[in-house]
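Researcher: Quick test of sequence recovery. Tokens follow.
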């Protein structure tokens, strides 16, 4: 047994995770702060026909929600834990869900929104046909997720640049520039050498939580009487993994595998929107930076990143390592 454990620890991406690059979400801390009772009530008229009238759990039950905060993550994981005790949820599919904290990441190659992309200074900055620079939006670091991604990747870090905000339309493939980088660079790009962004982008650092999706488990959550039960089966979140809640239809084509998902971020007054900020003041998410007009700031800003109406942008990879994207919105 000891020999088996030692061998397993030599391969952390597959088993015990001894080497970690990203900080990890302390789920126990947050589920203690946001227990299941905080998402359920015993008053009001809502009842679900799938539950018995004398069922002690026949309450306003926890509702499925997109995961953008530690409270959201606690709600999803606690319901999954409870329902999984009574139902077979099917084959789990691992996912690395991303929560956010303010400021830059601990290392420049880690998952983040905005800031300075982790790329060689000598690389040409992407631009459109008229020479207008794209805006750096996000990077996904896969170093902690190599055991759950679909294909050998062209690099360790995927950089995402947008021509514009993709706010009110689905866009063309040429509206997003995707390139790959590695953890170790010969001459990293400096912040002062980046062109001015075309629109404001939140600057946040990713913190990972290894989760499981249950694409076969939706009926169990419906039977238990949870509203928006689909969001318990497969989460709607910024995450790395082969499954994602899709708003309209599955974006995968033959030969494609889902690689990662970038979910909208809409700040509000709820507690702990970010892991290091208990509550945002109104000015923190409604003020307009001096360099941008309000019209530029409506859907993107300090802590706001909206793909239409709370949409998602999905990134898919084929067997040749080519990545394409699709954006869906309500």
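Model:
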């Amino acid at each position: 047994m000891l020999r088996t454990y030692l061998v397993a620890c030599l391969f952390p991406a597959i088993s015990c995770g001894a080497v970690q690059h990203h900080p990890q979400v302390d789920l126990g801390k947050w589920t203690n702060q946001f227990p299941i009772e905080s998402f359920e009530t015993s008053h009001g008229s809502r009842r679900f026909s799938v539950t018995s009238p004398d069922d002690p759990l026949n309450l306003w039950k926890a509702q499925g929600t997109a995961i953008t905060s530690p409270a959201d993550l606690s709600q999803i994981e606690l319901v999954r834990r409870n329902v999984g005790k009574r139902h077979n949820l099917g084959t789990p599919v691992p996912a690395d869900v991303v929560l956010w904290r303010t400021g830059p990441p601990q290392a420049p190659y880690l998952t983040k929104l905005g800031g300075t992309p982790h790329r060689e200074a000598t690389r040409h900055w992407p631009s459109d046909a008229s020479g207008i620079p794209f805006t750096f939006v996000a990077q996904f670091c896969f170093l902690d997720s190599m055991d759950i991604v679909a294909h050998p990747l062209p690099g360790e870090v995927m950089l995402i640049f947008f021509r514009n905000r993709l706010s009110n339309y689905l866009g063309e493939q040429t509206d997003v520039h995707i390139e790959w980088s590695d953890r170790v660079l010969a001459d990293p790009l400096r912040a002062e050498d980046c062109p001015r962004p075309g629109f404001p982008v939140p600057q946040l650092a990713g913190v990972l939580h290894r989760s499981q999706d249950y694409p076969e488990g939706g009926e169990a959550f419906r039977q238990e009487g949870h509203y928006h039960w689909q969001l318990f089966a497969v989460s709607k979140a910024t995450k790395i993994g082969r499954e994602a809640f899709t708003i309209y239809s599955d974006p995968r084509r033959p030969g494609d595998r889902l690689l990662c998902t970038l979910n909208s971020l809409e700040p509000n007054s709820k507690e702990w929107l970010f892991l290091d900020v208990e509550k945002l003041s109104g000015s923190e998410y409604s003020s307009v930076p001096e360099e941008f007009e309000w019209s530029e700031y409506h859907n993107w800003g300090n802590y706001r990143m909206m793909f239409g109406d709370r949409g998602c942008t999905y990134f898919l990879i084929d067997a040749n390592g080519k990545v394409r994207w699709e954006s869906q919105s309500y």
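The helical segments are 2-9, 27-33, 70-84, 218-223, 230-233, 282-286, 294-297.
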